[in-house]
Amino acid sequence: DGPFDWSEPVQGMILSCYFWGYLVSQIPGARVAESFSARWVMFFSVLINVVCTLLTPVAAKMHYIAMIVMRIGEGIGGGVTFPAMHVMLASWAPPNERSVMSAIVYAGTALGTVISMLMAGVLAGTLGWESVFYVMGGLSCLWMVLWLWLVQDTPTKQALMSQEERDLITSSLGTSSSGGHSEAKAPVPWRKVFTSAPFYGILIAHVCNNWGWYMLLIELPFYMKQVLQFNIKENAVVTAIPFLTMWFFSMALSKTLDALRSRGKITTTIARKTATFIASAVPMVCLLALCYIGCQRGLAVTLMTIGITAIGGMFCGLLSNHIDIAPNYAGTLMAITNSAATLSGIIVPIFVGQITHGNQTIGAWRVIFYVTIVLYVVEIIAYLLLASGEEQPWNKGDKPAASVEAAEAEATPLNQKESKQNYSAQDQ
Fold first, then answer.
1. Which of 10, 178, 195, 221 is spaced 20 to 30 Å from 118 by Cα?
2. Which range marks the domain in which residue 288 is found?
């Protein structure tokens, strides 16, 4: 129904190829962010996206292959953002505020989705579809200026804050307020990472949860249009609302969990498992119900809204968990799990395109929903059994025991400190 006569498989290819670039840039981007500067990694990632976004209208008119190249470029730029932000959060977020700060950062993806969907509909309807890319690219240029002006890698480099606030953050993280980290980071202990049960808990949960996330984020508009027969204006509003409610829910849940942790009512492990369970069990139930309600549009929209809203629990659940178990390598751990989870982003559009090609029926979509339900079950079991909110011994790297003990004497590990506070509260 547009200027480009692209088949559903081609559309799926264009959507999924973003994740090809996204996949290859994450681990290199994380290592650069941890070793040099997460601030500059973020800046250049957005710069790449700006260039590709502004060139997208031209590429689309040339050939769908040119469009694929632009999408891959956007993926390369976008792939480093989560690892770089994890490095920033590990350097900035006090342990008892980590859930809230992580939710604020990552739930921005939901809020950005709402704004983009609504803006895109208005811009395309008034100024033409090309204006969507030009406006988004222009706004990103403004963001780049603000980022360089307002953001620094660590509190010690930030002049736009009081010394009291700086001392509060650095003391809670066990770092020095007059310099960088209290000790240099050791090389990544790869063997210990890949033999860590908590790491695999995050990895499995991330892969399974992202399948549901990408399926709903990318394919929801197609389902609304092809099966529920929403017109384009209704589609924009209906698909945007769940991401707005997701943002509010993630804020409320993260604040609640951090408040309970700070009072010693629950541990970090319980907080992360609770949030992740909500982010998987609720969407799973909603998808199961969608399989049997037919074309009742009102009920379908309600279930989708509830399911997508609940996914917001992942921002203060599994997506915060890397920083808990290994703050020194949070960016690298995020890059590894997010790279694996990105495979879902590559597979989902192709999978849905193959299932629904010439077969836009409720029966076809039931197959898609059933597969997603099974993966949610796997996520729940794996995360509840394997995940932990405690800092792992290998966070200090492959160092001799004596040097680790010396470092611990200088700065108590965050989660051990939290655990002691929790036990003290329980004793009282």
1. 10
2. 8-155+192-421
